[in-house]
Design brief:
alpha+beta; 6 helices; five-stranded antiparallel sheet
Length: 332
């Protein structure tokens, strides 16, 4: 009779432990799924917020550059009476913005009869404080056929030209972007197209500064168990990376990115970057055909979820072990 009672007690204990194990597995799985969804939503919202803040700050910086360039262009517009006065106007405000590599005024053919078909004075940096004047218009550099010149004549409005690489064997060779505006004389005739040339160094420095501020912002970085290893870049509408922190070049192509950046929309895309699977959060920047993008390694996104799952697993295993020991003692 005693053996039968012991057998029944052991059977009930096994059934109880098995039921408890199943319930714990269900609770563990449900808890992990809920935490996964919550962390996924929180992570997405955080990086979307960081991307939007980056785009807004870059747009503000670009507007400041535009205002400085407009001041220079206005001076040129006021001094169209002679080639000499144009050159003086170009030189007048060059020290106001050290990030501008150079200012130019590309004139219509024979606007000044004695200057001929190509009159394009270019005032550019040769060091931190000094500028140099060059005449860059020529049959070799026929700016009248350049995309930015043709577009300016057609649009009659200011714009940012597509990024390009300029090379002439001198110290002004490099990757540039140009803010362009057509200039009209008092009769309403197109006189020239003015431009402010900037390399992408200033944008790369601005990205590093913005990333540093974002990582130090407690409201943006109240998150669990993960490192701030994201970084920001600027992507052209063709998918090419035009500004990035040192050593963080994003080698995207039109084939990889499709036409998502050309559509000037916000979203996410997963890509393999330098052998690391990463999520790219992107959003357009006002006034330009560029997008701000925040690159987040996939491992950094999954890490807090894996750590929380491990914590739940350890707590569940410990709880099961404690209950099992208690049941053994009760059964004895």
């Amino acid at each position: 009779m005693q053996q039968s009672t012991d057998y029944t007690s052991k059977k009930l204990m096994r059934f109880f432990m098995l039921t408890l194990l199943v319930m714990m597995i269900i609770i563990f799985s449900a808890s992990c799924w809920i935490c996964h969804q919550a962390l996924k939503a929180e992570t997405h919202a955080r990086y979307v917020g960081i991307t939007n803040i980056t785009a807004e700050k870059i747009a503000k910086t670009i507007k400041g550059m535009e205002m400085n360039a407009m001041n220079e262009f206005d001076e040129v517009e006021k001094h169209l009476d002679s080639p000499e006065s144009v050159i003086t106007a170009l030189k007048s405000k060059t020290n106001l913005n050290p990030e501008v590599r150079g200012y130019f005024a590309a004139f219509e053919p024979y606007y000044f009869e004695k200057e001929g078909q190509w009159f394009e004075p270019y005032v550019h940096h040769i060091d931190t404080n000094a500028f140099e004047l060059r005449m860059v218009g020529s049959a070799r550099h026929n700016y009248h056929k350049s995309e930015w010149y043709i577009r300016a004549k057609q649009s009659n409005d200011s714009f940012w030209a597509d990024p390009y690489y300029y090379y002439d064997g001198t110290n002004i060779s490099g990757h540039y972007t140009t803010f362009v505006k057509p200039i009209f004389d008092k009769t309403g005739r197109l006189a020239c197209v003015c431009g402010a040339d900037m390399t992408f160094e200033w944008l790369s420095k601005e990205l590093q500064r913005i990333d540093k501020e974002s990582k130090q912002n407690e409201l943006l970085n109240r998150h669990l168990f993960c490192e701030d290893d994201y970084y920001s870049v600027i992507i052209n509408n063709d998918g090419s990376c035009i500004a990035y922190p040192n050593g963080m070049f994003l080698a995207t192509t039109k084939e990889q990115a499709g036409n998502i950046f050309d559509q000037q929309k916000s979203g996410t895309i997963e890509m393999n970057i330098n052998g690391v699977t990463s999520t790219i959060y992107y959003t357009p920047i006002e006034h330009v055909k560029w997008s701000a993008a925040v690159i987040v390694p996939k491992q950094g996104i999954l890490q807090p979820m894996l750590i929380i799952a491990l914590i739940f697993l350890l707590i569940g295993a410990l709880s099961f072990l404690v209950v099992w020991q208690l049941c053994r003692r009760i059964a004895q």
